[in-house]
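Supplementary Methods S3. Input chains for the assembly prediction are listed below.
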Amino acid sequence: MTNLFINPPKIFCFNECLWFLDRGFDDCLYNISDHTIYKAMLIDGEPVLIQICYADNKIQITSLNKTLTHNNKQYVAAYVKEWLDLDTDLSEFYQMAKQNELLSPLISCYHGLTMIGINDLFEALCWAIMGQQINLNFAYKTKRAFVEKYGESIHFNGKQFYLFPTPEKVSKCTVESLKQLQFSANKAKYIINLAGLFNNEEISKRQLSHLKYPDSIRNTLISIKGIGSWTAEYAMMKCFKIKSAFPIQDVGLQNAIKQQLRLQEKPSLEEIKHLSKPWSGWESYATLYLWRSLSSPSNTV
DNA sequence: CGCCAGGCTTAGG
DNA sequence: CCTAAGCATGGC
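Predicted structure tokens for the full assembly:
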């Protein structure tokens, strides 16, 4: 057991983050109970269970099954900062949002919500591919089946905590085996192919992080089969934390805008382009808050 | 049966 | 660059 503490950013609300994480979907890669997050992560190649809670205005992290060295602690702190986007100062976003018809109610309702991400690029891309064009409940169901079949896990206090399957493991899956988990044949192909690219180090987060412009990251991602612009923008938003990333064709975004503005029909691409002009530079956060608005309570503001 | 769900690929302008 | 068609799967 090792404890460490992180100071949250100025604009931050742990409870809003907890609520988002626990907003009604069955995510198999963390657990929430008693205002605490439990998540398995890899430290020095070894699965470790950490808990994250909030006390005395600090984020408190505890490793539950391993004593952490000084370097381990730094790694875990960096991991959590990245996961919860704690190095982003939201002042500028909030200032813009305050003057925006669509966003101003949302930043007051969900004040302090941050971009909870997916640190691992392979996981982010697989998850985005799994979620393409199907309802989210079903997407989480297939993700659980996949993770429980191919992912490592830690047993702790009578529960299993899972890690996302590695590219190495997934690259050896067959289309048939994934179809049994209710993947479509195409998605199975895309994910197995993607796993091969990661396994052969033809693609990595580190390599893409060095690219100078978001467009070059986007173009590299889109060149991979199964990754279109929605998936690329999703990964840029959730994994690279690029603030201007924007899955503009997202059907959830369309529904959120329709609901917020009480439109009869979903807004067209042109309407969304127009509405999103003021968000320039913060499109990813605008999308996050609109997605958040789709989950109860406070379905409409 | 029909329509929808946090789309993608391919073919053809 | 843009549009349309075809594809694929489960939930309601």
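Residues 133-135, 137-138, 141-142, 182-187 of chain A lie near DNA strand C (CB under 10 Å from a C1'). Chain A has a mean pLDDT of 96.
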